[in-house]
Amino acid sequence: MQIRPLKLEDLPLVKTFTDRAIGLNYFSQEELKESFAKSSLNGVMCSFVLVDDGGTIQGFRLAYPPTTWSKGKGSRLRSDLWPVPLESAAYFQSLFLSDDVQGQGWGPQLSEASVQAFLQLGARAIITHAWKESPNNSSIRYLTKFGFKPVAEHPEYWVDVDYECVRDGKPCRCTAVEMIKLLSKEQA
After folding, report:
1. pLDDT at 74
2. Which ranges in 9-137 belong to alpha helices (H)?
3. Which end of the chain, N or C, is less surrounded by CB atoms within 10 Å?
4. What is the per-residue pLDDT for 83?
5. CB 94, CB 107: distance < 8 Å
6. Environment class of residue 117 by beta-carbon count within 10 Å: exposed (0-12), middle (13-18) or buried (19+)?
7. 51 three-class SS
8. Strands 2-5 vs 149-154: parallel, antiparallel or unpaired
9. Which of 11, 158, 5, 136 is nearest to 74 (CA)?
10. 2 Cβ partners below 8 Å, 6+ apart?
Protein backbone atom coordinates (compact mmCIF):
# COMPACT_ATOMS: atom_id res chain seq x y z
CA MET A 1 0.00 0.00 0.00
CA GLN A 2 1.16 3.48 -0.80
CA ILE A 3 -0.08 6.99 -0.02
CA ARG A 4 0.65 9.46 -2.78
CA PRO A 5 -0.62 12.82 -4.00
CA LEU A 6 -3.84 12.76 -6.02
CA LYS A 7 -3.29 12.93 -9.81
CA LEU A 8 -5.71 14.08 -12.51
CA GLU A 9 -5.68 10.60 -14.05
CA ASP A 10 -6.93 9.15 -10.71
CA LEU A 11 -10.29 10.89 -10.98
CA PRO A 12 -12.22 8.20 -12.94
CA LEU A 13 -11.10 5.58 -10.39
CA VAL A 14 -12.02 7.90 -7.50
CA LYS A 15 -15.48 8.33 -9.06
CA THR A 16 -15.96 4.56 -9.29
CA PHE A 17 -14.78 4.17 -5.70
CA THR A 18 -17.10 6.90 -4.35
CA ASP A 19 -20.13 5.62 -6.27
CA ARG A 20 -19.66 2.28 -4.54
CA ALA A 21 -18.56 3.49 -1.07
CA ILE A 22 -20.59 6.67 -0.49
CA GLY A 23 -23.55 6.60 -2.81
CA LEU A 24 -24.21 6.90 -6.51
CA ASN A 25 -23.21 10.33 -7.84
CA TYR A 26 -22.09 11.83 -4.53
CA PHE A 27 -19.32 13.22 -6.70
CA SER A 28 -19.83 13.93 -10.38
CA GLN A 29 -16.83 13.70 -12.69
CA GLU A 30 -17.01 17.50 -13.11
CA GLU A 31 -17.07 18.05 -9.35
CA LEU A 32 -14.04 15.79 -8.93
CA LYS A 33 -12.19 17.89 -11.52
CA GLU A 34 -13.12 21.03 -9.55
CA SER A 35 -11.99 19.32 -6.34
CA PHE A 36 -8.68 18.43 -7.95
CA ALA A 37 -8.17 22.06 -8.99
CA LYS A 38 -8.99 23.28 -5.44
CA SER A 39 -6.60 20.71 -3.90
CA SER A 40 -3.34 22.45 -4.70
CA LEU A 41 -1.75 25.82 -4.14
CA ASN A 42 1.68 27.04 -5.19
CA GLY A 43 2.51 23.57 -6.52
CA VAL A 44 1.66 21.81 -3.24
CA MET A 45 -0.98 19.03 -3.57
CA CYS A 46 -3.09 18.64 -0.42
CA SER A 47 -5.27 15.67 -1.52
CA PHE A 48 -3.96 12.11 -1.35
CA VAL A 49 -4.90 8.59 -2.43
CA LEU A 50 -4.17 5.20 -0.93
CA VAL A 51 -3.38 2.66 -3.64
CA ASP A 52 -2.62 -1.05 -3.35
CA ASP A 53 0.17 -2.85 -5.19
CA GLY A 54 -2.12 -3.34 -8.21
CA GLY A 55 -2.86 0.39 -8.45
CA THR A 56 -6.43 0.08 -7.14
CA ILE A 57 -7.60 3.00 -5.05
CA GLN A 58 -8.37 1.80 -1.52
CA GLY A 59 -9.00 5.24 -0.04
CA PHE A 60 -8.54 8.96 -0.46
CA ARG A 61 -8.48 12.27 1.38
CA LEU A 62 -9.75 15.33 -0.51
CA ALA A 63 -8.34 18.43 1.15
CA TYR A 64 -8.27 22.08 0.13
CA PRO A 65 -5.61 24.59 1.16
CA PRO A 66 -6.49 28.10 2.36
CA THR A 67 -7.92 30.50 -0.26
CA THR A 68 -8.94 27.74 -2.72
CA TRP A 69 -12.36 27.04 -1.19
CA SER A 70 -15.29 28.97 0.26
CA LYS A 71 -17.68 26.21 1.37
CA GLY A 72 -17.99 22.48 1.84
CA LYS A 73 -20.21 20.10 -0.11
CA GLY A 74 -23.18 21.83 1.46
CA SER A 75 -23.33 25.60 1.62
CA ARG A 76 -23.40 26.40 5.32
CA LEU A 77 -20.42 27.65 7.33
CA ARG A 78 -20.21 29.37 10.70
CA SER A 79 -16.89 31.15 10.19
CA ASP A 80 -18.06 33.72 12.75
CA LEU A 81 -17.42 31.01 15.38
CA TRP A 82 -13.83 30.31 14.29
CA PRO A 83 -10.79 31.91 15.94
CA VAL A 84 -9.12 32.30 12.51
CA PRO A 85 -10.29 34.02 9.30
CA LEU A 86 -11.57 31.93 6.37
CA GLU A 87 -8.51 32.96 4.33
CA SER A 88 -6.17 31.11 6.72
CA ALA A 89 -8.30 27.96 7.09
CA ALA A 90 -7.86 24.78 5.08
CA TYR A 91 -10.71 22.31 4.49
CA PHE A 92 -11.04 18.54 4.82
CA GLN A 93 -13.64 17.69 2.16
CA SER A 94 -13.77 13.90 2.27
CA LEU A 95 -11.99 10.85 3.66
CA PHE A 96 -13.13 7.43 2.57
CA LEU A 97 -11.53 4.00 2.87
CA SER A 98 -12.55 0.67 1.39
CA ASP A 99 -13.89 -1.85 3.90
CA ASP A 100 -10.76 -3.94 3.28
CA VAL A 101 -8.42 -1.34 4.81
CA GLN A 102 -10.53 0.23 7.55
CA GLY A 103 -9.13 0.04 11.05
CA GLN A 104 -5.52 -0.28 9.86
CA GLY A 105 -4.43 3.33 10.43
CA TRP A 106 -4.65 4.48 6.81
CA GLY A 107 -7.23 7.22 7.53
CA PRO A 108 -4.99 9.10 9.97
CA GLN A 109 -2.02 8.66 7.62
CA LEU A 110 -3.96 10.16 4.69
CA SER A 111 -5.14 13.02 6.90
CA GLU A 112 -1.64 13.64 8.26
CA ALA A 113 -0.27 13.87 4.70
CA SER A 114 -2.78 16.67 4.07
CA VAL A 115 -1.93 18.38 7.39
CA GLN A 116 1.75 18.46 6.43
CA ALA A 117 0.87 20.05 3.08
CA PHE A 118 -1.35 22.62 4.86
CA LEU A 119 1.43 23.52 7.28
CA GLN A 120 3.80 23.99 4.36
CA LEU A 121 1.30 26.53 2.99
CA GLY A 122 0.85 28.37 6.30
CA ALA A 123 -2.67 27.20 7.21
CA ARG A 124 -3.72 28.08 10.77
CA ALA A 125 -6.73 25.75 11.05
CA ILE A 126 -8.66 23.01 9.27
CA ILE A 127 -12.44 23.08 8.91
CA THR A 128 -14.60 20.07 8.07
CA HIS A 129 -18.17 18.83 8.16
CA ALA A 130 -18.62 15.44 9.86
CA TRP A 131 -21.46 13.04 9.15
CA LYS A 132 -23.41 12.91 12.43
CA GLU A 133 -25.31 9.75 11.50
CA SER A 134 -22.24 7.78 10.40
CA PRO A 135 -22.23 4.14 11.56
CA ASN A 136 -21.17 3.96 15.22
CA ASN A 137 -20.59 7.74 15.09
CA SER A 138 -17.30 6.91 13.33
CA SER A 139 -16.96 10.26 11.54
CA ILE A 140 -17.15 12.45 14.63
CA ARG A 141 -15.17 9.97 16.77
CA TYR A 142 -12.37 9.87 14.17
CA LEU A 143 -12.19 13.66 13.83
CA THR A 144 -12.32 14.21 17.60
CA LYS A 145 -9.46 11.75 18.08
CA PHE A 146 -7.57 13.65 15.34
CA GLY A 147 -7.93 16.90 17.32
CA PHE A 148 -11.08 18.49 15.88
CA LYS A 149 -13.68 20.25 18.03
CA PRO A 150 -17.36 20.83 17.11
CA VAL A 151 -18.41 24.34 16.10
CA ALA A 152 -22.01 24.01 14.88
CA GLU A 153 -24.62 21.53 13.61
CA HIS A 154 -26.29 21.81 10.23
CA PRO A 155 -29.45 19.64 9.89
CA GLU A 156 -30.11 18.32 6.37
CA TYR A 157 -26.73 19.67 5.26
CA TRP A 158 -26.60 17.54 2.10
CA VAL A 159 -30.32 17.84 1.16
CA ASP A 160 -29.49 19.83 -2.00
CA VAL A 161 -26.79 17.42 -3.18
CA ASP A 162 -28.22 15.31 -6.00
CA TYR A 163 -27.12 11.83 -4.96
CA GLU A 164 -28.41 8.63 -3.39
CA CYS A 165 -27.38 8.64 0.30
CA VAL A 166 -26.31 5.21 1.54
CA ARG A 167 -28.24 5.85 4.77
CA ASP A 168 -31.54 7.42 3.80
CA GLY A 169 -31.74 7.56 0.02
CA LYS A 170 -32.60 10.69 -1.90
CA PRO A 171 -32.62 13.42 -0.76
CA CYS A 172 -30.06 13.00 1.99
CA ARG A 173 -31.44 14.29 5.29
CA CYS A 174 -28.32 13.69 7.36
CA THR A 175 -26.85 16.26 9.75
CA ALA A 176 -23.36 17.74 9.40
CA VAL A 177 -21.33 18.76 12.42
CA GLU A 178 -18.97 21.60 11.49
CA MET A 179 -15.63 21.02 13.21
CA ILE A 180 -12.31 22.85 13.52
CA LYS A 181 -8.74 21.79 14.25
CA LEU A 182 -6.27 24.55 15.13
CA LEU A 183 -2.80 24.06 13.71
CA SER A 184 -0.68 26.50 15.68
CA LYS A 185 0.00 26.04 19.39
CA GLU A 186 -0.57 29.69 20.29
CA GLN A 187 -4.23 29.36 19.25
CA ALA A 188 -4.93 26.06 21.02
Report:
1. 57
2. 11-21, 29-38, 106-120
3. C
4. 93
5. no
6. buried
7. strand
8. unpaired
9. 158
10. 50, 51
Q: Domains of the chain (ranges plus CATH)?
A: 2-187 (3.40.630.30)
Ranges of beta strands (E only) in 15-167 are 40-41, 44-45, 48-51, 57-64, 89-97, 125-131, 149-154
**Contact status, residue 26 vs residue 162, Cβ threshold 8 Å:** no
Whether the Cβ atoms of residue 71 and residue 142 lie closer than 8 Å to each other: no
Residue 67 Ramachandran class (φ > 0 left, ψ -120 to 50 alpha, else beta)? left
Beta-bridged to residue 61, according to DSSP, are 48, 95
Answer whether 124's CB lies under 8 Å from 183's CB.
Answer: yes
55's CB contacts (< 8 A; 6+ apart) are none
Does residue 13 sit in helix, strand or coil?
A: helix
Amino acid occupying residue 38: K
pTM: 0.86
- In order along its 188 residues, the chain shows pLDDT tens digits of 999 999 999 999 999 998 888 777 888 899 999 999 999 999 999 999 999 999 889 999 999 999 998 766 656 788 888 999 999 999 998 888 988 888 888 999 999 999 999 999 999 999 998 877 766 777 888 899 999 999 988 877 766 777 766 667 677 777 778 999 999 753 44
